[in-house]
Amino acid sequence: MAQAHPSLFTHGSGADPAPVGSQRVPVLLPMPFAGPFDYKAPASMALQPGDIVSVPLGNRRETGVVWDTHNTLPPDLARPPSGKTVADNRLRSVAERLELPPLNAELRQFVDWVAAYTLSPPGMVLAMTLRLHMKGSTPTPATGWIVQPPPAELRLTPARQKVLALMADGVARTTTDIASAAGVSAGVVKGLADAGALRTILLEPERPFAQPDPLHHPPVLEGAQKEAATALRQSVNARCFSVTLLEGVTGSGKTEIYLEAIAACLEQGQQALVLLPEIALSAQWMDRFTRRFGVRPAVWHSEIGQKARRLTWLGAADGSARVVVGARSALFLPFCNPGLIIVDEEHESLFKQEEGVIYNARDMAVLRGRLAGFPVVVVSATPSLETLANAEAGRYQRLVLPTRHGGASLPQTHLLDMRAAPPPRGLFLSPQLVEDIASTLAREEQAMLFLNRRGYAPLTLCRTCGHRMECPHCTAWLVEHRNRHVLSCHYCDHTEPMPAVCPTCKSEDSLTAIGPGIERITEEARQLFPDARILVMSSDTLGGPAATAEAVAKIARREVDLIIGTQIVAKGWHFPHLTLVGIVDADLGLGGADLRAGERTIQLLHQVAGRAGRASTPGRVVLQSYTPEHPVMQALLSGDFDQFMEQEAEQRRPGFWPPYGRLAALIISADTPQAADEAAAQFGRTAPYGEGIQVLGPAPAPLAILRGRHRRRLLLRTWRSIAVQPILHRWLGLVQVSRHVRVEVDVDPVSFL
Ligand code: ADP
Ligand code: ZN
Ligand code: ZN
């Protein structure tokens, strides 16, 4: 953690009287300090908690937020006090208050709680609210021009006359607008201004967000859909905290129904936030929203530009953005009047941020709703065991849509035992699947092949000496990308040209591709179906949201026969002509030591399968598996997820695995294996113990080397009734690691790599 200048560092200030005529205020900076620093401000500035200010730090200026003198953390989450109070006469002064809407008390409390829950410095959580889009700058309101009586001696050129004629209506316009409307250069406008014929005025701040109309195009609802929509509307109208699980098979109308909850929220004049796991892929979602409400929602994700970011931020803060749809980081927007959060695909591990502040946006959405007193709706066809357990325990309300809308049937599932009917040597599609694809294409319907693996082959091996091509910086094989003639690591940025000879034994032509990636499946499909129009969907072939939207539109327009894709194809797309889905390697996610491997595989494969048969023609799903007896395969075959999840629950309950117990991981990394081992051993020696508390490890992480850093893991497991945060605080306090060693804390880990 970075060290503060000692004279700046205080904690829990406010006890000392401020000097006469000035105010002493804690200011939280978006940086990894342990807490706010005290500053002084002239009483005339009248700063309040939440005000966004500019303050000196070292010889820089930083943007921060006036914080609360006392936080409201529950005892479990409270931090041990640290630091000391700075004397009044050594305090530095707040430079200015920025012209931005202040952060309200609920958001400040939320920042404090998230920081405490995840054991992150509060400034790093604040940074997610502030940093990206503010950068210390105040948005300057646009200035425009209006006419004023011209001075008598004004020289009237034809160009100037055109401008004056345009501006005679008295409407304020920007320089750019005038220049283009009058067909003159910007210099003409400036000349007229200098001559005194135009004067500048501040334009109304931009209001880019049209207001969604809840009555624009409501759906006709019946049966379970109607009941669910009514229940959700009631939760929203109650204006208090609740969590509802909205569950239903793919195509049952979950989106349609939660849009009703948003309508209710709009009717109450409140703001709604929709969190999607991957907003960059959501073109179809935007269209749905627009059809329902007449306008597009405000958007928030990492790929929108600076300007859009700032507008959404301000729109959230001043209430003009009524509905925001975003990726997990949208959770930290400063909504002034939030009334609802929807977490769509709540089971998705993409809601977990794995770097910086390690948090789960689904869980923190529930926290935000609880602190601010509004409902949260979590949505999934295959809810996580965590959410199911919460529903079971009565903490969450559960609404179920049992059938597909409009009588569409769920796809039929077939398991292909690859041991009994293997594909020809060196190929990956079994004869049965090939036949299914052929007949689907013959009926002029669409087929899809799914394999969650980018590139050509996951492993390149020398047939002569057995050498495996590995990343020099990670414990990982290099993945061949044949299109680009490179080997690349999927864990770091390392990429190298495909070597002509084996780097070890120098044999020529001995390097062999082992196993398939989607490039290889595409090659196979091209040979089998030379006339089919094939579209490959992966992050390598689709350069961004626009390309993805175009690919999806092509599929909907029926300009594609066979889609081959990675998990991108699993997102909630509606492909009306798709009737066959082939899962190339259904066993793929089941290896490894991941607690949730089975659950995760079911969720992903069910989601992929759900793309098939969404319109009138029934769909068919073919699973290629070498372990057809595996409970995951059997559950996919029967479609009985409830039973599968009950089995999962029975397996996790006795060992207090989540959700029946709590986990926190410590990931220790260092430049050398010795340093990593030494630090890990120290944590091992000081490990907490007691009834209901257990520590597993230290052990090398499965990704033992990542980006050149050697990684060790320890796992703290406790009973559900025992909070991990105080235990972690005590534990971290017992170990002094050198500054080359990094210790990451991951509360409620999702990844075990
Ligand atoms: P899910 O989110 O559960 O996958 P969707 O909300 O996407 O389901 O609904 C599947 C399809 O059925 C969509 O095209 C949707 O517009 C349509 N649909 C669902 N419910 C209705 C309804 N009540 N009226 C009209 N269309 C509906
Ligand atoms: Zn070799
Ligand atoms: Zn690497």
Automatic annotation (TrEMBL):
Q: Does the keyword Zinc apply?
A: yes
Required co-factors: Zn(2+)
> Where, in this chain's numbering, is Zn(2+) 1 bound?
C462, C465, C502, C505
Explain how, and how many, cofactor molecules are bound. Binds 2 zinc ions per subunit.
Every Helicase ATP-binding domain range: 235-401
User: What one GO molecular function would you report for this record?
Assistant: zinc ion binding
Q: What is its EC number?
A: 5.6.2.4
Q: Provide this UniProt record's keywords sorted from A to Z.
A: ATP-binding, DNA replication, DNA-binding, Helicase, Hydrolase, Isomerase, Metal-binding, Nucleotide-binding, Primosome, Zinc
Family matches, as PROSITE patterns: HELICASE_ATP_BIND_1
An example Gene Ontology CC term for this record: primosome complex
Task: State the reactions this protein catalyses.
Answer: ATP + H2O = ADP + phosphate + H(+); Couples ATP hydrolysis with the unwinding of duplex DNA by translocating in the 3'-5' direction
Q: Give the EC class as a word.
A: isomerase
Family, according to the entry, reads as follows: Belongs to the helicase family. PriA subfamily.
- Oligomeric form and interacting partners: Component of the replication restart primosome.
What does this protein's UniProt record list under function? Initiates the restart of stalled replication forks, which reloads the replicative helicase on sites other than the origin of replication. Recognizes and binds to abandoned replication forks and remodels them to uncover a helicase loading site. Promotes assembly of the primosome at these replication forks.
NCBIfam families, alphabetically?
priA, PRK05580.2-2
Protein name (database record): Replication restart protein PriA
Q: Which organism is it from?
A: Acetobacter syzygii
**What gene is this protein a product of?**
priA
